[in-house]
Amino acid sequence: MSFGNLTIGLIGSGNMARALIRGLLQAGHPASRLQVADPDPAQLAQAGALHAGIGTHGNNRDVAGVADVLVIAVKPQLMASVAKEIAAGPRPTGQLILSVAAGITLDSLRGWFGPDAPLVRVMPNQPATIGAGISGLAASAVVSERDRQVAEYVAAATGRALWLQDEALMDAVTAVSGSGPAYFYLLMEHMERAAVELGLPVELAAALTRETALGAARVVCETKAEPAALRAAVTSPGGTTAAALRVFETANLGAVVRSALAAARDRSVELGKSGT
């Protein structure tokens, strides 16, 4: 099913909004069907620079009033004021609203846009900025099958899009994939530093660490093997890998990871409660 005839409006023109625009353009969505609003002229100019045909506006209502699909991509602390501003103005009947603001629940969105508004909550992650992201999606009860397809079409412009049957899982999704890239960056950061301490030049330490991370991720994704099985396959008894893994196990790395994800999940819950 083609959705190229839909006008997609974006409120906000930051990194995630621009990632969506790039992905939609690459997917063949007409630039003339993309409208962006942002009160920051510099940010708006960056969005407009992605294609001459994109409509840019300094007023949110100018976009909300014409969009078949409205993507609200603002910081969570701005969501309430932006949503109330949009809800108070004219909008097309049946307009599908997507929110990519972390911690903003469907209940909050219903409070602003009403119980009959089709609403989808999207949790993307930072790799979406290069088209390698993964997003969790949760829909309100009134979202039709077609609207689900449209929401997936938009979210998948930056990578994979997976539906959640229960919005309550969104806090766990936030902890795993939303915040997850930072965990891998942290490990890479420490590996690069340790490699330099072992005597490797900075450039070589970075190249070895980054290509190893990329290769390991590709092996997991392309073979679909369990990470534990792959780990065992490269761990010889009494070898160098076993020596390194023993240090991780002594430090109880598993418990640290579980505590870290639980902390992120709990913070997401807190943000959801304060999001109204």
Would you mind describing this structure in some detail?
The chain has 276 residues and is α/β, with parallel strands linked by helices. It folds into 2 domains: 162 residues, Rossmann fold, CATH 3.40.50.720; 94 residues, ProC C-terminal domain-like (ProC C-terminal domain-like fold, Orthogonal Bundle). The chain is built from 12 helices and 8 strands. The chain is elongated, with a radius of gyration of 21 Å. The model has no long low-confidence stretch (mean pLDDT 96).
Key attributes of the depicted protein:
single chain, alpha/beta, 276 residues, Rossmann fold, elongated, ProC C-terminal domain-like fold, 8-stranded mixed β-sheet
Topology (SSEs and partners):
Blueprint: E1 8-11, H1 15-26, E2 34-37, H2 41-48, E3 55-57, H3 60-64, E4 69-72, H4 76-87, E5 96-99, H5 106-113, E6 119-123, E7 133-139, H6 145-155, E8 159-163, H7 170-178, H8 180-197, H9 202-223, H10 227-233, H11 240-250, H12 253-274
Parallel strand pairs: 1-2, 1-4, 2-3, 4-5, 5-6, 7-8
Antiparallel strand pairs: 6-7
Helix pairs in contact: 7-12, 8-9
Please count the helical segments: 12
Fraction of residues in helix: 40-55%
What is the CATH topology classification name of the largest domain?
Answer: Rossmann fold
Helical/strand content category: alpha/beta
Any idea what the radius of gyration is?
21 Å
pLDDT < 50 stretches: none
Order of helices and strands: EHEHEHEHEHEEHEHHHHHH
Rounded to the nearest angstrom, the distance between the terminal CA atoms is 36 Å
Biggest β-sheet strands, sense, barrel: 8 strands, mixed
Secondary-structure arrangement, i.e. CATH architecture of the largest domain: 3-Layer(aba) Sandwich
Number of domains: 2
How many strand elements?
A: 8
Q: What is the residue-mean pLDDT, rounded to a whole number?
A: 96
Report the sheet-strand fraction.
5-15%
CATH homology group of the largest domain: NAD(P)-binding Rossmann-like Domain
User: Can you tell me the CATH class of the largest domain?
Assistant: Alpha Beta
The strand line-up of the biggest sheet is 3-2-1-4-5-6-7-8
The backbone outline, from C-alpha atoms, is elongated
